[in-house]
Design a protein that fits this description.
Structural class: alpha/beta
CATH topology: TIM Barrel
Order of helices and strands: EHEHEHEHEEHEHEHH
Strand order of the largest sheet: 1-8-7-6-5-4-3-2
Number of domains: 1
Largest sheet: 8 strands, parallel
Radius of gyration: 16 Å
Number of strands: 8
CATH superfamily: Aldolase class I
Shape: globular
């Protein structure tokens, strides 16, 4: 079943604990946390104190997306602060195999992220290592961008490869996810759909989560 994974990048930080509890009430089991360093992407966001604060108010899985140039140094620090999943960008990892194993050895699930211009074929040699693959459906760095449809072709390719090679990694998508495309996202084979603005900018974030989850379930129940 597809999981809706709210991204706190779009949350109201003056009410962060309240907003997290709100989506928890909707059955959310995972929260997405975007970490940006102002170098790999043109924006700067949260450090470990935010992760530690979130960890104190929730027991849900914390999915950390490291949009940074030095994930080898900072991944263990975020894991110690409370991260359960760490995803790193293919585009910055010189020794991706080693980085993924290091994350797992530190006690977290390891994911690899690909930007819109990066083909899935470049991941062939790590798909048997990763716990999940994150397909960016916008260019990373800012919220509220428009969904890039080609991301679904990447998802379909990963889903086929997973079956053909009998692998069990999860497929995640991030960027421009909302009620208008969640059905297509579910049908393509996504397991985790990160949603920021469409959840936390809604009048009722919990209702937004439930409605997207229902739309995904209905899409998957239709035989094509």
């Amino acid at each position: 079943m597809l999981q809706i994974v709210p991204s706190i990048f779009a949350a109201d930080f003056t009410r962060l604990g309240e907003q997290i509890r709100c989506v928890e009430d909707a059955g959310v089991t995972q929260i997405h946390v975007d970490i940006m360093d102002g170098h790999f992407v043109p924006n700067f966001t949260m450090g470990t104190p935010i992760t530690e604060s979130i960890r104190r108010v929730t027991n849900v899985q914390l999915d950390h997306h490291l949009m940074i140039e030095d994930p080898d140094t900072y991944a263990p620090i975020f894991i110690k602060a409370g991260a359960d999943c760490i995803s790193v960008h293919y585009e910055v990892c010189r020794n991706l195999d080693r980085t993924l194993h290091m994350i797992q050895d530190e006690g977290a699930k390891a994911g690899v992220v690909i930007n819109p211009a990066t083909p899935t074929s470049l991941l062939e040699n790590v798909l048997d290592i990763v716990d999940f693959v994150l397909v960016m459906s916008v260019n990373p760095g800012y919220g509220g961008q428009q969904f890039i449809p080609n991301a679904l072709n990447k998802v379909r390719h990963l889903a086929r490869t997973r079956v053909e090679r009998k692998l069990d990694f999860a497929i995640e998508i991030d960027g421009g996810v909302g009620p208008e495309n969640i059905a297509d996202i579910a049908r393509a084979g996504v397991d985790w759909a990160v949603a920021g603005s469409s959840v936390f900018h809604a009048a009722d974030p919990a209702r937004a989560v439930r409605e997207m989850r229902q739309a995904a379930e209905e899409a998957l129940s239709v035989k094509v």
